[in-house]
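REQUEST
  id: r-88c1
  op: predict_structure
  target: C/D box methylation guide ribonucleoprotein complex aNOP56 subunit
  payload:
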Amino acid sequence: GVIFQYPDINKSPRWQRGKIARALAGKLAIAAKVDAYTGRFIGDKLVEDLRKRIEEIKKLYAKPPPRKEAPPQKPKLRKEGKEKRREKRR
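RESPONSE
  id: r-88c1
  status: 200
  body:
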């Protein structure tokens, strides 16, 4: 939920949102690890890398994927009940 509030994800078409969100999550994980283990600040480099990746995603996936067709529906099988069993006996 919180990651999807990021403006670049929120404003993107639905078929690009998941890809951008995964890229952002990866950069957030890297930032957290670097901060925890080294204490260095690498935020500027990560933001630059993220911007490049977002542009790459927008170029690669500019058009929506083709829609899948729904499988043909089969007629419902009617289960036999008490009434049907009585008719069979007659």
